[in-house]
Amino acid sequence: MKVGVCRMKQQGKVTSIHNGYANIQVLRASACGDKCSGCSGGCSKEVIDVNVRNDIHSKIGDNVELEVDEKTIIGAALLVYIFPIVSLILGLILTAVVTGWIGIRVSEIALLSGGMSFMFFSFLVIRKIDKRINANNSITFHMTRIL
After folding, report:
1. What is the mean pLDDT of residues 13-32?
2. Which of 45, 47, 48, 97 has a CA that sits 20 to 30 A from residue 137's CA?
């Protein structure tokens, strides 16, 4: 591993192998770090199927370790957490500017409506990007070892 490169590690179980690729079931990590007894939030354990090149020659039933590159994690976090906030602020500013040009006195409700409209639009954009990423398998996992 290169110095300064951070990778997210996940564990999964190989469920099938086809044409050099392994289908792996990965238990999605919860936001609270899987300490469900500590927060009593009742998190559901969602399973994700991931198709990964089988470079380490794993077999069906093997538990394997997967890695995802830091850039992928940071890009997804920026998209999901920062983009909606930036859209909200941009909507507030554009609503104020446009209503100023038109000569309408803007109220707080109008500003909030403009900001929330932009934020809602950002969620639609995120959903479309998510569907495209899922369809293209754009997030690349790498199997690192058999556990």
Report:
1. 82
2. 45
